Sequence to fold (92 residues):
Amino acid sequence: MRLRKSSMLTKLIILAVAVYAIVMLLGLQAQISQQEAANAALQEQITTTAQENQRLEQAIARVGSREGVEEVARNKLGFVTEGEMIFYNLGD
Fold:
């Protein structure tokens, strides 16, 4: 009789441990899924930032050239070359 009770208690303990392990594994799987989604979002952000960096590096390289300086002088400072005329549309 004592052997049966201890056997039943052992089975209950093993069942409880198994249920606990399953619950923990499911929780960890959910965390893994969340972290994978966060990783994908960060990878996309890295790609976007790398593209922006490349664009900015090209813009910096352009500014160092004569054409780049002229572009900045025209667009940002409103300079014109000798003999050039600017017309403004005041109708809007």
Observations:
- The chain has a mean pLDDT of 88.
- The radius of gyration is 35 Å.
- Residues 46 and 52 are 10 Å apart (CA to CA).
- The helical segments are 2-63, 66-75.
